[in-house]
Amino acid sequence: PHAEAVELREVLATRQVMVRDLSAVKNRIWAKMQSAFPTLWPMLDLSREWARPLVQKLLVVKAPWRLRLSSIEAALGTARRVDAQSVKAALLADRSTIETPSGQSARQLARHQFGALTALIEARRSVEAQRDRLLDAWIAKQGVQAQRDVKIIRSMPGAGANLVAVLVAYAWQGVQARDPEHLRCLDGLAPITKQTGGRGRPRRGEVQMRRAYCRPLREAFFQWASTAILRDARSKRRLAELRARGHSWGR
After folding, report:
1. Nearest to 189 by CA among 174, 210, 216, 205
2. Contact 91, 40 (CB under 8 A)
3. Has residue 198 got a pLDDT over 70?
């Protein structure tokens, strides 16, 4: 593989570790938020940019239920599903819980975890910027066909910079060869059929999941499909067809 592809693998592996660490920190914060803000916490989502300033403010101020509507609106910013009136009503409902010793302790612990969350988010952005620079450097060295392939992949519903980087780092040979079966085997989508039995006995076939696969490629394809079913009508219809036949959401 090219030098950029080798370095891309290291960067992608680092980013994957950061994504998992972020998920763990978010879960710890949510556990504490649930203890201190039982009514409010279901409205918020730390993966959203608008939610983090509000959560930080709620963890810092001494009496969150006294926040003015103007302050809540400023913290919410561009939020569309949550409004200041709903947040204010939830804070008033949670006042008795926030004032308890357990509620105060939960807020303090969540505040410590929030600092780690902010640091991890900044580190992930730095790693993703490095990923994009390496990807651009690789694309600049390729011919017209490879550059056209990258444009086609990026135009697909749900595809992003991370998918292109994973394909370049782990499976570009299959993309160039237009070999979908090779890609299906690499990411574990192609099943394995095992047959047992011998002379004089009927053979039985058993279809199993492929266990030998490229984990980064499999996760990138899963995220690709997960995003596509939210934004693409054809993908939504395909999901509905599979669910109607009894398949799981993961399928």
Report:
1. 210
2. yes
3. no
